[in-house]
Design goal:
Blueprint lengths: L5 H10 L3 H4 L2 H11 L5 H10 L7 E3 L5 E4 L6 H9 L9 E3 L2 E3 L5 H9 L9 E5 L5 H8 L4 E5 L3 H14 L5 E4 L13 E7 L8 H11 E13 L7 E2 L14 E2 L1 H10 L2 E11 L20 E2 L2 E5 L7 E9 L1
Parallel strand pairs: 2-3, 5-6, 5-8, 6-7, 8-9
Antiparallel strand pairs: 1-2, 3-4, 9-15, 10-11, 12-15, 13-14
Length: 324
C-alpha cells in the first residue's frame, strides 16, 4: 500500500484529458516522497491496511458531513480507534458509518459561504491547491465536477484522504498528490476551476502564486481564492514579525484593495468578492479528533479582536477571478 493510488491517479489524468499536463506527476510525487521522508508513514500505512471492508448502503457527499452508512455489522469501536489514530483531523466533518469525525475546522461553513457565488462546477476539471485531507474535493464532486485533484505536501492529510476514499468509493475521479506547490507543472493551462484556500498568506511571493495559478487555468477558467485579509481601504499588507495567531510562515496579509490589485496585475478579470467573514472559535476549535490548541488559544484572552501577538484577529475573504 502507498500514500497515493498512482494507478487510479493516472487513470483520471488519461480519462479527463490531463495526461499531457500531468504524465510526470507519479515520478515527481515518488521523488518528493523519497526526498522528504516521514517516520510515521509506515505506521499510517499499516492503519490503512487494517481498515475493514464495509458494504455501503448509502453515500452522501452533499451533506455538511461527507458520509456513508451501512446495514452491515462491524466493530465500531475498533474502527473509531483506527480513524482516531490518524489524528489530528483538520478539515471536515465526516461521518463514516455512524462515526462522526468532528474536525478542527467546520469546513462546511466555508463551503456554504462560497458555493452560491462561484461559477457552477458541472462538468469542470478542478484543482484544489493546499487541499488538506480532501474534504472540499468531495464537495466539488458533489457539485458536478468531472474530476477533482488536490495538492498538499502533508503526508498525514493524504493518508486521511485515502481512509475516507476507502469507505466512500475508490472509483470516483478524485485524487490527492502529496507534493509541494512548486513541484506542479505550471504554464500549462489544464483546469476549468482552481481553488486556493488558506495558502496565499503562506507564500513568500504571493503575486507569483497567483500568476502560477493563472497559468494553469484554461480560457474562461475561474480562480477561487480564499485568504486572510486586513481591514484597510488602502492597498497595503500586514507583514507579521514572527508568528501570526501562532502560525508560522505568514508572510503577507493583504487588504482587499491590494488583493484585487494583485489579481488585476496577474491579468485576471471579472474579480468578485464573494464573502468577508471573521474566523471565530466556533468555526475553528479543539475537538476529540483534533485535541491540540486551536484558535481560542491563539487570540488575546483579554481582547479577542486581537491575536495573542497583538495583530488584528483573523478575517477571511473569498474572491473569484477569471482568466480570459
Amino acid at each position: 500500500m502507498e500514500i497515493v493510488d498512482f494507478k487510479h491517479l493516472n487513470r483520471i489524468l488519461k480519462d479527463h484529458h490531463l495526461w499531457e499536463w500531468g504524465h510526470h506527476l507519479e515520478e515527481m510525487s515518488r521523488q518528493f516522497l523519497q526526498n522528504n521522508p516521514h517516520g510515521d508513514v509506515p505506521v499510517w500505512l499499516a492503519t490503512l491496511s487494517k481498515l475493514p471492508q464495509i458494504e455501503v448502503t448509502d453515500r452522501d457527499i452533499s451533506s455538511p458531513a461527507v458520509s456513508v452508512c451501512t446495514d452491515q455489522e462491524f466493530d465500531r469501536k475498533a474502527l473509531e480507534t483506527e480513524l482516531k489514530s490518524l489524528s489530528p483531523w483538520r478539515k471536515g466533518p465526516f461521518d463514516i458509518h455512524g462515526i462522526y469525525i468532528d474536525a478542527e475546522w467546520r469546513s462546511d461553513w466555508k463551503w456554504q459561504r462560497l458555493i452560491e457565488g462561484i461559477t457552477p462546477l458541472q462538468g469542470r476539471k478542478v484543482l484544489d491547491i493546499g487541499c488538506g485531507n480532501g474534504y472540499y474535493l468531495w464537495r466539488i464532486l458533489e457539485n458536478g465536477a468531472s474530476c477533482a485533484l488536490g495538492v498538499d505536501p502533508a503526508y498525514l492529510f493524504a493518508i486521511q484522504f485515502q481512509a475516507i476514499r476507502h469507505f466512500i468509493c475508490k472509483n470516483l475521479p478524485v485524487a490527492i498528490l502529496p507534493i509541494g506547490i512548486d513541484e506542479l507543472p505550471f504554464h500549462m493551462p489544464a483546469f476549468d476551476s482552481i481553488f486556493s484556500m488558506g495558502v496565499l498568506y503562506h507564500q513568500r511571493a504571493p503575486r507569483k502564486h497567483i500568476e502560477q495559478l493563472r497559468s494553469l487555468l484554461l480560457p474562461d477558467g475561474d480562480l477561487i481564492l480564499e485568504t486572510l485579509i486586513i481591514e484597510d481601504d488602502d492597498p497595503v499588507a500586514l507583514k507579521p514579525a514572527g508568528r501570526y495567531a501562532k502560525m508560522r510562515n505568514v508572510h503577507q496579509i493583504p487588504s482587499v484593495s491590494l488583493l484585487k490589485q494583485w489579481l488585476k496585475n496577474a491579468n485576471l478579470q471579472n474579480i468578485k468578492m464573494i464573502d468577508v467573514s471573521p474566523t471565530t472559535p466556533n468555526e475553528q476549535r479543539t475537538t476529540d479528533w483534533m485535541p491540540f490548541k486551536s484558535l481560542k488559544d491563539f487570540l488575546d484572552p483579554t481582547n479577542p479582536a486581537k491575536t495573542i501577538e497583538g495583530y488584528p484577529a483573523p478575517i477571511r475573504a473569498i474572491i473569484t477571478a477569471t482568466r480570459k
